[in-house]
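RECORD TYPE: inverse folding
INPUT: structure tokens
STRUCTURE:
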């Protein structure tokens, strides 16, 4: 579920309000492991204090397989022309060189910041794979379409791949996630 941009600060406050209750629960039930993401920044010290092992799970870190091909397709993927375009482009890049950019639902840069990011990718000269999504209604400046700087895609043709998705739904997220896993 996507949360409207202006509501995210309240979600974070509510999440932080769970700290005392989670501590009591963990103290009473002592699980063997806790798997967590970045949200409960207060969880690692609690787990350490209670002697509970933990694992940090993040889909934010892009890693490429150490194979001759960077990305391999399943039979189902081969039927999806868009997936084939992504795989073909990634497999032409040198291993470990592609910059993966996918701003999550909590990141809503201003038009100026977005332009700076685009121009920085262009000037870096590095190959990049950039997943762009439509912004949810209620986002920052209210503009639902993300507009790249004029001529950006033409100037970076061959250097990078810009992949546009609809509003971040399950299939579009899966595609962007699978492209780098």
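DESIGNED SEQUENCE:
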């Amino acid at each position: 579920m996507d949360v409207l941009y202006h509501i995210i600060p309240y979600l974070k406050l509510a999440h932080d309000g769970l700290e005392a209750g989670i501590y009591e629960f963990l103290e009473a039930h002592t699980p063997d492991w806790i798997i967590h993401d970045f949200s409960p920044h207060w969880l690692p010290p609690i787990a350490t204090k209670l002697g509970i092992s933990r694992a940090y799970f993040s889909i934010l870190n892009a890693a490429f397989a150490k194979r001759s091909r960077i990305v391999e397709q399943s039979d189902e993927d081969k039927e999806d022309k868009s997936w084939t375009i992504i795989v073909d482009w990634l497999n032409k890049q040198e291993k470990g060189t592609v910059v993966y950019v996918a701003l999550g639902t909590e990141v809503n840069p201003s038009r100026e910041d977005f332009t700076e990011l685009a121009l920085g990718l262009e000037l870096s000269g590095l190959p990049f794979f950039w997943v762009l999504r439509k912004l949810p209604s209620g986002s920052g400046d209210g503009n639902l379409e993300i507009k790249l700087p004029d001529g950006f895609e033409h100037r970076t043709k061959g250097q990078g791949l810009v992949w546009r998705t609809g509003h971040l739904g399950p299939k579009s997220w899966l595609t962007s996630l699978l492209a780098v896993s």
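NOTES: The helical segments are 8-16, 19-29, 43-50, 75-78, 81-91, 111-124, 152-155, 170-178.
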